[in-house]
C-alpha cells in the first residue's frame, strides 16, 4: 500500500531534479547558485540569515535536503527558519514543512512516537489552522495515529472547499481501501485522482490496481501496475506488486508441470533482482522463505524469518513504540506461519501449533495459519479440536475450498451418521466452489473459464462415493464416474480400484454389461502396470498379482447369468493361478449344485467337507456348507438337525458373532414356532419366537445394516398379527436390499392387510425383476391376490384375472400340480358362486355360460383329485368329493336357474327397450309435424305482411306525387302575391315621404313598426309539440345564433313551414303553409329596404 504522502509529493518530479542545484536571489539582486549541499546545514542557515532571504528560499533549501534523504538537516533548516521573524502564512509554510519531515521519519519507523509528537507540536504553532496545507498535515497526523475518523472528516472538509483537491482525494481513497475495505468506492476515488492529475505522486495507479485485485479483476490490476511502472521505471512498489501477481498466476493457472517450472524460474530471477535493489524488504524476504521451504531447506527459512523478526523488533525499538503497525503485524504473522510449517515438517507438532497460534494472534485473517493449526491438532490426535478450528473458519469464510475439504474428511472419519451427512454437505460444497473460484467470469473465453475452475482432489470424489454407498448406490456410482472424468480432463487416468468399484456397483444394480466392461478395463490396467525399477517395496512388487485375482473373480461373477460356461472357465483359470482362492471354488460348487448338476450331491458334499477341513475356521466356507445342508440335506440322507448342529458348532467353536450362522439359527427357530399348531403349546411357540428375536437382535447389534436380520424380525411381527410393524420394517428394507424375498414378504403382509393393489404391485416387481417370468409360485401368489381383490371389491373381472394367473401357474409348473389344480378349481367354484349371488340385471348370459363350463371343468378336476390315481391330494379325498358333489347338485343348478332368470330378464329388458324406442319415435314424429305446421303458419303470415307493405308503399308514392303538385301550385301563388306586395309598398313610401320629410331619421323605426303590424294579422304557426319530426336545416344554420327574440321567432316560423311542407301527407292545410311562406318573404323584403335584419339571411331558404 502506498503512503499518502512522501518526499516526491513535497518536491514533485521536476523539483526533485531541480533540487540538485539551488538558485537563491540575494538582497542586491544577484543570483547565487549552489551546486552541492554542504554536509553541515549551518553554512546555508548562516548564508540565508545574512542575506535576509525570504521564506521561499528557506523552504527550497529544506526541500533539497529532504529530497536528498537528509531529513535531519531538513528539520534543522525548517526549525531555524520557523524561529525567525516570519509572520502569518510565511511562518506557516515552514511549520507545515517541518511537520512533513517528521512524518517522513515516522514512515521510516525512526523514533515514531517522538516524531509524531514533534509534528503535532509544529502544527499547533501555525496561525491559520484552516489553510489547506495545515488541514492536509493534520489529516496525515491523524492517519499516522490511526485516528481514521478524524482524518476522514478533514479530508471531507477539504473536498467541500475544493472537490478537486488530489491530496484529500488520495487520503480518502487510502482510508476507504485499507480501513473500510469498500473496494468499489475506493476505486472510483483513485480513478478521480488519476483524471485530475495523471502525474500525481504517489501514483494513484498503485491504489487502482489494488482495488481491482481485491475485486477479483486480476488483469485490470496488472494493467494498472504496468502503467505505473511505465510512468516511473523506478517505482519499486509497482515492480513488487507485478512480481507477486506473477507468482499468483503461475501457482493457479499453470497447465503443466513444465510450464510451471519454466515460469517459476523466471519469476524467481525477477525476485532476486528486486532483492538486490532492496535487500531488507520484508515482503521479498517472505517470498524467498516460501521458495526455500519448497526446496526443503528449512534452516535457510528459519534464518530468513528470524532476520525479518529482528528487523521488525529493531524498528519498533527505534520508534520507541510497542504498538505494531498493521503491515508489521501481517509480516510477523507470515513469519510465524513459516516457522510453524518448518516445525510441522520436522514432526514437532506441539511447537508447530504454538507458532500457528502466534501467527493467528498477530493476524486473525491469516487463513493458512489456521489451516496449519488444524493440521497440527489433527497430527497430535486432537481431531475434535481440529474440527472446532475448521468449523470456526468455515462460518466466517463460506467460500474457502481447503477448509470445506478438510472438514469434510474429518466428518467422514466419525462413526456418527449425522457427521456423515455433514461430511457429504461439506465435500459437495467443496466441489461446487471448485467450479468457480470466485473470479470474474463475465465475457471470459473458454480457456480462461477453464482456468477459473480449481482442480478437484480425487479423494473428494472417492470419499463421497464411500459415504453414499450405504444409502444410495446410484449416487455413489455417479461420483466414481466423476472421479474418472476429472482425471481425464488433466490427461491422466483414475486408479484401477475405481473401475473395479464401478463394476461392483453396476453388478449390484443388475447392470451386468456395464459391470463386465469396467472389470475388463481394470484387468487391462493390471496387465499394463509397470513396477518401478528402483523400488524395494515388496508390496509394490506383488501389487499386480494381488489385484488381478479379485478383479478376475468379479468378472467371472458378472458373467454367470449371461454366459455361465465362460464364467466357469474363468473360475477354473483363476484356481490354476491361485489354488487357495476358495471363493472361486465355492462358486464352482454352487453352480454345480443348482445349475449344471455335473456332480452328484453326495460327491459335492464330499468336496465341500474337504474344503471345510482345509479351511475349518473360514466363515464363508462354513456358511456355504450350512446352506448346502439346509437345501440338499434330505436328498443325501443327512439328519434333520444337521443344519442346526453345524450352525451351533460355528457359533461355539469358531465365531460367536458370525451373522450368517446367527440368522440361520433364528430362521430354524421361526420354522419350529410355525410348526406348533396346538393351542395348548402356545407357550412353546412363543419361546421359539423369542429365541429367534434374540438371535436377530444380536445380528443387528453386530451389523446394524443387516437387512436379512431386520427382515426376520418383520416376519416374526407378521406371524404374531402385528402386520403394521412388520410392514414398516419391510418397507425400510426394500430401500436397501434388492432381493426377491423382500418383495414377496411385502406382498404377503399387504394381502393380510387387505391392500390388494399394493400387494399385486409387489408380486409383479418380484416376478418381472427377479425371475424369467415363469415362476409358478409367484404366479400363484398373483392369482390369490387378484381373487381376494375381486371378492373384496365384488368385481368379476378381477376374479377372472385371478383365474388367469392360477391357470398360468398350473401350466408352467413341473411339480406340485395337484395343489395348483385345486387352486384353479377353487377359483372357478368361487366365480360360479359369485355370479349366482349377483342381481339379475348385473349378470350376462355370456358370463353365466362361461361359468357353467368352468364349473363343470372344476367338478371334473376335483373328482380327479379325489380319485385313486392321485397319490398326493392337497386335501382329504372325501372333502374333495363332497365339494364336487356340492357343485354338481347345488351350484350347477343355481347357475342354470340364474341363466333362465337372466335370459328372461334380458328378454324383458329388450321388450322395454323396443317399447321405449317406439314411443320415442312417435314423440319425435309428433314434434316434426308440429314444427312443419309452425313453419307453414309463419310463412303465411310473412306473405300477408308482404302484401300490406306493398299497398303501403304504393299509397306513399301517391301521397308524394300529390305533395309535389301542391308545392308547384303554392310556388305560383307566392310569386303573384310577391308582385302585389311590392307595388303596395312603393305607394306607402311615397305617402310617408311627403307627410314626414323632416323625420327621415325615424324611417327605419316606422318601417319596422309597419313590419310588425303587418305580421300581427298573420295566423301563428303550429307549436313544436305538434311537429311530426325533427327539422333538417341547411348547411351552416346550426352555427349561427339569432341576435334577437323576434328574429329567432322568424327563423322558427321558417322551420315550422318546412315541417308543414314535409308533413303534407299528414293533412296539414295548404292555406296555413301559404300564409307562413308569404309572411317570410314579406319580412325579407321589408328588411332589405330598411337595411336591417342582416345576419339572419343565413337562416332563410
From TrEMBL:
Chain intervals with Acidic residues compositional bias: 1057-1066, 1081-1101
Region of interest called Disordered, as start-end residue ranges on this chain: 963-1101
SMART domains referenced in this protein's UniProt entry, alphabetically: TPR (SM00028)
Biased composition (Basic residues): 999-1009
Entry coiled-coil feature ranges: 892-962
Gene3D superfamilies: Tetratricopeptide repeat domain (1.25.40.10)
Pfam family membership, one: TPR_8
GO MF annotations in UniProt: RNA polymerase II complex binding
Protein name: PEP-CTERM system TPR-repeat lipoprotein
Lineage: Eukaryota, Fungi, Dikarya, Ascomycota, Saccharomycotina
Amino acid at each position: 500500500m502506498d503512503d499518502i504522502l512522501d518526499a516526491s509529493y513535497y518536491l514533485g518530479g521536476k523539483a526533485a531534479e531541480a533540487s540538485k542545484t539551488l538558485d537563491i536571489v540575494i538582497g542586491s539582486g544577484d543570483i547565487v547558485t549552489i551546486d552541492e549541499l554542504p554536509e553541515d546545514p549551518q553554512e546555508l542557515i548562516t548564508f540565508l540569515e545574512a542575506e535576509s532571504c525570504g521564506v521561499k528560499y528557506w523552504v527550497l533549501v529544506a526541500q533539497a535536503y529532504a529530497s536528498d534523504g537528509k531529513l535531519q538537516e531538513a528539520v534543522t533548516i525548517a526549525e531555524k527558519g520557523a524561529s525567525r521573524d516570519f509572520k502569518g502564512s510565511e511562518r506557516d509554510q515552514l511549520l507545515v514543512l517541518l511537520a512533513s519531515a517528521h512524518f517522513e521519519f515516522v514512515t521510516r519507523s525512526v523514533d515514531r512516537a517522538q516524531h509524531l509528537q514533534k509534528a503535532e507540536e509544529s502544527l499547533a504553532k501555525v496561525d491559520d489552522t484552516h489553510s489547506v496545507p495545515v488541514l492536509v498535515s493534520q489529516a496525515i497526523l491523524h492517519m499516522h495515529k490511526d485516528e481514521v475518523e478524524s482524518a476522514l472528516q478533514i479530508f471531507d472538509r477539504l473536498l467541500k472547499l475544493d472537490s478537486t483537491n488530489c491530496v484529500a482525494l488520495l487520503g480518502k481513497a487510502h482510508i476507504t481501501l485499507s480501513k473500510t475495505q469498500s473496494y468499489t468506492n475506493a476505486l472510483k476515488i483513485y480513478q478521480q485522482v488519476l483524471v485530475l492529475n495523471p502525474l500525481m505522486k504517489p501514483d494513484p495507479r498503485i491504489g487502482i490496481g489494488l482495488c481491482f485485485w481485491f475485486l477479483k479483476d486480476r488483469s485490470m490490476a496488472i494493467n494498472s501496475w504496468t502503467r505505473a511502472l511505465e510512468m516511473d521505471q523506478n517505482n519499486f512498489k509497482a515492480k513488487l506488486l507485478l512480481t507477486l501477481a506473477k507468482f499468483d498466476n503461475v501457482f493457479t493457472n499453470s497447465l503443466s508441470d513444465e510450464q510451471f517450472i519454466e515460469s517459476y524460474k523466471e519469476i524467481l530471477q525477477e525476485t532476486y533482482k528486486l532483492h538486490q535493489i532492496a535487500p531488507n524488504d520484508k515482503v521479498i524476504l517472505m517470498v524467498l522463505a516460501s521458495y526455500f521451504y519448497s526446496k526443503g531447506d528449512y534452516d535457510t527459512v528459519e534464518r530468513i524469518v528470524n532476520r525479518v523478526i529482528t528487523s521488525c523488533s529493531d524498528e519498533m525499538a527505534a520508534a520507541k513504540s510497542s504498538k505494531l503497525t498493521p503491515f508489521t503485524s501481517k509480516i510477523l504473522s507470515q513469519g510465524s506461519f513459516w516457522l510453524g510449517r518448518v516445525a510441522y515438517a520436522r514432526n514437532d507438532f506441539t511447537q508447530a501449533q504454538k507458532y500457528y497460534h502466534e501467527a493467528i494472534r498477530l493476524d486473525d485473517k491469516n487463513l493458512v495459519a489456521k489451516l496449519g493449526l488444524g493440521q497440527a491438532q489433527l497430527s497430535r490426535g486432537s481431531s475434535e479440536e481440529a474440527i472446532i478450528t475448521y468449523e470456526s473458519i468455515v462460518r466466517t469464510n463460506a467460500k474457502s475450498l481447503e477448509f470445506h475439504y478438510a472438514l469434510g474428511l474429518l466428518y467422514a472419519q466419525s462413526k456418527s451418521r449425522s457427521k456423515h451427512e455433514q461430511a457429504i454437505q461439506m465435500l459437495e460444497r467443496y466441489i461446487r466452489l471448485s467450479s468457480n473460484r470466485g473470479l470474474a467470469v463475465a465475457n471470459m473465453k473458454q480457456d480462461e473459464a477453464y482456468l477459473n475452475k480449481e482442480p478437484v482432489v480425487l479423494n473428494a470424489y472417492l470419499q463421497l462415493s464411500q459415504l453414499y454407498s450405504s444409502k444410495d448406490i446410484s449416487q455413489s456410482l455417479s461420483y466414481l464416474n466423476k472421479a474418472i472424468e476429472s482425471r481425464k480432463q488433466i490427461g491422466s487416468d483414475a486408479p484401477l480400484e475405481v473401475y473395479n468399484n464401478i463394476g461392483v456397483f453396476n453388478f449390484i444394480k443388475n447392470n451386468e454389461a456395464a459391470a463386465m466392461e469396467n472389470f475388463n478395463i481394470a484387468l487391462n490396467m493390471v496387465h499394463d502396470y509397470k513396477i518401478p525399477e528402483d523400488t524395494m517395496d515388496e508390496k509394490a512388487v506383488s501389487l499386480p498379482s494381488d489385484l488381478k485375482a479379485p478383479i478376475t473373480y468379479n468378472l467371472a461373477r458378472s458373467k454367470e447369468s449371461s454366459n455361465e460356461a465362460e464364467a466357469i472357465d474363468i473360475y477354473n483359470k483363476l484356481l490354476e493361478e491361485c489354488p487357495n482362492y476358495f471363493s472361486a471354488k465355492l462358486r464352482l460348487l454352487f453352480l454345480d449344485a443348482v445349475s449344471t448338476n455335473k456332480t452328484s450331491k453326495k460327491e459335492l458334499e464330499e468336496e465341500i467337507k474337504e474344503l471345510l477341513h482345509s479351511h475349518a475356521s473360514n466363515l464363508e466356507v462354513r456358511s456355504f456348507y450350512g446352506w448346502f445342508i439346509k437345501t440338499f440335506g434330505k436328498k443325501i440322507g443327512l439328519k434333520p438337525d444337521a443344519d442346526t448342529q453345524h450352525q451351533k458348532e460355528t457359533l461355539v467353536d469358531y465365531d460367536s458373532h458370525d451373522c450368517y450362522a446367527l440368522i440361520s439359527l433364528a430362521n430354524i427357530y421361526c420354522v419350529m414356532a410355525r410348526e406348533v399348531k396346538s393351542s395348548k403349546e402356545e407357550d412353546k411357540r412363543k419361546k421359539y419366537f423369542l429365541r429367534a428375536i434374540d438371535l436377530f437382535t444380536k445380528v443387528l447389534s453386530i451389523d446394524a445394516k443387516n437387512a436379512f436380520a431386520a427382515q426376520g424380525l418383520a416376519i416374526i411381527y407378521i406371524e404374531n398379527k402385528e402386520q403394521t410393524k412388520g410392514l414398516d420394517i419391510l418397507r425400510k428394507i426394500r430401500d436397501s436390499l434388492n432381493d426377491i424375498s423382500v418383495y414377496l414378504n411385502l406382498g404377503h403382509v399387504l394381502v393380510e392387510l387387505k391392500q390388494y393393489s399394493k400387494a399385486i404391485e409387489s408380486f409383479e416387481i418380484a416376478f418381472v425383476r427377479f425371475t424369467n417370468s415363469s415362476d409358478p409360485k409367484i404366479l400363484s401368489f398373483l392369482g390369490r391376490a387378484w381373487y381376494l381383490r375381486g371378492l373384496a371389491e365384488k368385481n368379476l373381472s378381477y376374479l377372472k384375472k385371478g383365474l388367469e394367473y392360477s391357470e398360468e401357474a398350473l401350466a408352467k409348473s413341473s411339480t406340485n400340480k395337484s395343489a395348483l389344480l385345486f387352486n384353479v378349481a377353487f377359483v372357478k367354484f368361487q366365480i360360479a358362486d359369485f355370479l349366482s349371488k349377483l342381481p339379475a340385471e348385473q349378470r350376462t348370459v355370456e358370463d353365466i355360460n362361461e361359468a357353467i363350463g368352468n364349473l363343470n371343468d372344476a367338478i371334473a378336476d376335483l373328482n380327479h383329485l379325489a380319485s385313486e390315481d392321485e397319490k398326493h391330494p392337497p386335501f382329504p379325498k372325501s372333502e374333495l368329493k363332497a365339494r364336487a358333489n356340492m357343485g354338481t347338485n347345488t351350484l350347477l343348478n343355481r347357475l342354470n336357474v340364474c341363466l333362465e332368470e337372466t335370459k328372461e330378464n334380458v328378454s324383458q329388458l329388450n321388450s322395454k327397450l323396443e317399447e321405449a324406442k317406439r314411443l320415442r319415435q312417435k314423440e319425435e314424429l309428433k314434434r316434426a309435424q308440429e314444427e312443419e305446421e309452425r313453419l307453414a303458419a309463419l310463412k303465411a303470415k310473412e306473405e300477408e305482411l308482404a302484401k300490406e307493405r306493398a299497398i303501403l308503399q304504393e299509397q306513399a308514392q301517391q301521397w308524394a306525387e300529390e305533395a309535389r303538385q301542391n308545392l308547384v301550385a303554392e310556388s305560383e301563388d307566392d310569386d303573384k302575391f310577391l308582385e302585389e306586395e311590392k307595388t303596395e309598398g312603393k305607394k306607402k313610401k311615397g305617402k310617408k315621404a311627403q307627410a314626414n320629410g323632416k323625420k327621415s331619421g325615424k324611417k327605419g323605426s316606422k318601417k319596422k313598426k309597419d313590419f310588425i303590424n303587418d305580421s300581427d294579422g298573420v295566423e301563428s304557426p303550429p307549436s313544436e309539440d305538434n311537429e311530426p319530426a325533427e327539422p333538417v336545416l341547411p348547411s351552416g344554420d346550426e352555427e349561427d345564433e339569432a341576435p334577437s327574440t323576434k328574429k329567432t321567432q322568424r327563423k322558427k316560423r321558417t322551420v315550422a313551414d318546412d315541417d308543414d311542407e314535409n308533413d303534407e301527407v299528414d293533412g296539414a292545410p295548404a292555406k296555413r303553409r301559404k300564409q307562413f311562406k308569404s309572411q317570410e318573404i314579406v319580412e325579407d323584403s321589408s328588411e332589405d329596404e330598411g337595411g336591417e335584419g342582416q345576419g339572419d339571411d343565413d337562416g332563410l331558404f
